[in-house]
Design goal:
By secondary structure, this protein is α+β, with helices and mostly antiparallel strands. Helix content is about 30%, strand content about 15%. It has one domain: Muramoyl-pentapeptide Carboxypeptidase, domain 2.
């Protein structure tokens, strides 16, 4: 079912950049996560199509998307939970920064930022991806950082995505009958 319902975001719009952080050690755990076997971002087809529309919307402003994570195999989420427990960071679970059951497992959540199409560089969002404190809350920004976060939120919301207020980079998309999958990302 996962192979039928999930789509690669670059198959929908090849101009969307992907840097699958959990495929590499460039993430908060310091190691690739179980289930990530390729530098790809998958989403439920409906969400991937909507993300393509966000990309088109941003391109009119000379901007584009850089996706850090999309669909996450259940085993990847379990690895995050195990990491939090093993390292004594259970508060990250309790505070909602790491989910025991994630919308990513259903292919309806995406983590991303905005980049300049001219330079390829991400806009300043005030914190790195996967910052686990109040500075990463979407509303906790001023000046240029607040404007950049607003560009991302406005573009995503215009196509039906909803921001998770504790993480400026995290958005969800509603689909009918969401179900979790554990298909590896290949």
């Amino acid at each position: 079912m996962a192979a039928r319902l999930l789509a690669d975001v670059r198959d929908i719009d090849s101009t969307i950049r992907v840097e699958a952080r959990y495929f590499t050690s460039n993430n908060f755990t310091g190691a690739p996560l179980a289930g990530y076997e390729a530098d790809r971002a998958l989403l439920r087809r409906e969400a991937a199509v909507a993300l393509g529309k966000v990309q088109q919307r941003l391109a009119r402003q000379g901007l584009g998307l850089l996706v850090y994570d999309g669909y996450r195999p259940v085993r990847g989420t379990l690895a995050m939970v195990e990491w939090a427990e093993r390292t004594g960071r259970v508060s990250l679970l309790d505070d909602g920064y790491i989910a025991r059951r994630s919308r990513h497992n259903m292919g309806v959540a995406v983590d991303l930022t905005v980049v300049s199409l001219a330079t390829g560089e991400p806009l300043d969002m005030g914190t790195p991806f996967d910052t686990f404190d109040e500075s990463a809350h979407t509303a906790n920004a001023t000046g240029e950082v607040a404007r950049n976060r607003s560009v991302l939120v406005d573009a995503m919301e215009a196509e039906g995505f909803v921001n998770y207020e504790q993480e400026w980079w995290h958005f969800s998309f509603e689909v009918s009958h969401p179900v979790p999958f554990d298909m590896p990302v290949r």
